[in-house]
Amino acid sequence: MLDLSWKLFSMTGTIGSYLLIKEIEKEKDEEQKQQSCEMSDLKEHAGA
C-alpha cells in the first residue's frame, strides 16, 4: 500500500497523496509498537 501511495505522490505531487503516505506510516508504526508491547506482556507473564 505504501509503495502505491508513494507512486501516486511521485506522479501527482499532491499534498493529499503525501498526507496519505504519512498516515499509512503512522498506522504502521503504531501497529508495530502495539505488537512490541503485547510481546513484552507475554514474556512477563510467561516468566511469572
Automatic annotation (TrEMBL):
Chain positions covered by the region annotation Disordered: 29-48
Family annotation (InterPro entries): YqzL
Name of the protein in question: YqzL-like protein
